């Protein structure tokens, strides 16, 4: 497990495993957002298996599958809603953490400066400069 906190209330991670969930809860996270489509992953890590595991440890589970290169307005809205309504820090995961960083940035376009939305993920190796036009439009 490799949690990368972009803010005090939002972190990203590569794929997590059900065995990681007790540590995620102990770290203070209140919710887990799954940004991976089921077609990418083996059955034991797919949506319903992860939902059962996440909810079994008492965390909120949000499903928001983001297809690489095809992020939708619905993806952005779902991520934003989860970020705004979860009573505590959120951990979002995908294959590498990149897509979870992209939807985080897009969900805050117009609210935070583009330099911040690009610069924070860059500290963890996520190159989001290509998003600048969308982030500046808000």
TrEMBL record:
Residue ranges annotated for the Rhodanese domain, each copy included: 89-130
Domain of life: Bacteria
Recorded GO MF terms: transferase activity
UniProt entry keywords in alphabetical sequence: Transferase
DNA-binding keyword on record: no
InterPro entries: BLH_phosphatase-like, Prot-tyrosine_phosphatase-like, Rhodanese-like_dom
PROSITE patterns found in the cross-reference section: RHODANESE_3
A Pfam family assignment: BLH_phosphatase
Record NCBIfam families: TIGR01244 family sulfur transferase (TIGR01244)
Stated name of the protein: TIGR01244 family sulfur transferase
Organism encoding this protein: Gemmobacter denitrificans
Taxonomic lineage from the root: Bacteria, Pseudomonadati, Pseudomonadota, Alphaproteobacteria, Rhodobacterales
